Amino acid sequence: MDSTTAIRVGLRHRRTSLMDKTRLKDSASRRKTFAAALQQFEEQMNAAKVVSAATRPINLYYGLVQAGLAMTAAHTPGTWTFSKHGLKVVDMEPDIPHVAVRPDGEGAFQAVSDTTGSERTADAISIGALWNSIPELTEAPLKGMTSDPAVTFIADRYTSVQGDTGRWVADATPPVEYLRASVCVNEDMPPLPDRKAWLARFLPRYPGVHDARLWGSEGDAYREIRPGRFFVELCWPAPKRDMEEAEIGDFFDTRAPAYRFTEDRYLRPAFEPTKAPPTPLMTWWLLLYSFSMLARYQPRKWSEALGIDKSPSAAALEYALDIALEIIPHLVLEGLDRKPVLLAQPMTF
Question: Nearest-CA neighbor of 278 among 17, 86, 9, 141?
């Protein structure tokens, strides 16, 4: 079956398969809420498929909230219900990329973040920054965005040794092993004299590589793919010698976990210094909440932004709301399982 069908079947199966594995087992109230919430999630997603982009954010967001309630019913100890969003749009007047959302007390966003292991956010985050941190959206930018994008991360499955090590004897210091990865950046490659400064700016913005170093020299570690896109090779001293492939995978999972597909890893930018961003599930949550607020309380502004003949952001907004129909069920399935559900890449011809 294709990936969309596999996710749909998986979600339907969770309606029974989680009953004996979670806190649902010992609580009739949790079980009834779980079933009702997932039914509403499914119906909201179906409704989102048949309405236009003018209304779709409302169905998507409220469907996601119901899915979040199912997650807390299944997994959260103690108080697991919520009655507030836990979020507030700061100001709806700016251009859409600059509209920002912030936490507001305790509510659904905080409860589901805690249940699914996502970092809570403390600061206001703009729609543009949220958008750019979602891997599927980085190549369909909204007009006026200036934030750091998610970037492709290609992890090597083996350790490497720098330079020509020759042979070493038992009483000599063995060569240092390194874990290597390439980062693919959608910018013009910096000229050689500027590469040190570029790397010093780049690394702190992405928590997954803040402690990385170049693999090789500044002349060798950078490679242009085409104008506006290049690779830079990074490395870390291996935590131990003779690491197994699974251990190497675990190392990279803490820095750039596989996302949706088995071979896809991304570095996502930080919204707050020294703090990992919310997970993709909770980033979409913030984005869809913001869109739903604009659709409900600024319908003219939202409709004008979707005007395909006049708005430069219309095509990108349509695209985001289209792919959300595919991505949100996948992320909800992961949230229910509280672990990645990775798919094989679809074949292309």
Answer: 86
